[in-house]
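Q: Hi! First time doing this. I have a protein sequence and I read that you can turn it into a structure. Is that right? Here it is:
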Amino acid sequence: MELDSEITFGEEYEELREKYSLPEFDKLAEDFDIEKVSEKESTFILREIRRMIHEKLSAYLSLFEMLVNPSAPPMFMFGVIKKMNGDHKELIKKVYENLVKLQISIMKLDTVYSEKSEAEFIIRSFSEWQDMKVKIHDLIDSFEQNVEKNDSLKKTSYFG
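A: Yes, that's right. Below is the predicted 3D structure, encoded as structure tokens:
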């Protein structure tokens, strides 16, 4: 009987997790959908995980760029932006700055591969995301409340 000498994705991640004190795979998957990485064949698992993290962070960076600099936001965002208070604006600015710093780190990691640097980024971004996701959720909740209260969308609609 021949034993399978190939190491599984889970086993390889577990070795890397122990080596670098990475977050549990399930926790990363919960926040960043990294289970898709296990479907790819890659020699550089941590880089692939970082890329999955990058996808999510980039989506939020785009949202926060629009909130910080609303030059041409979607129509529904005009009412949301108009009703933001000073605390919301300050929180948006802080989250945006944090996302920008992570984005710069990602660009740096794309230039020269280092397993250790990839691991450090995964640890850092996971940790920072734990704080940011609560703030983002609260902001989006307030946006949702503002949209529900905003009668100006109904009054200024072309179809209204």
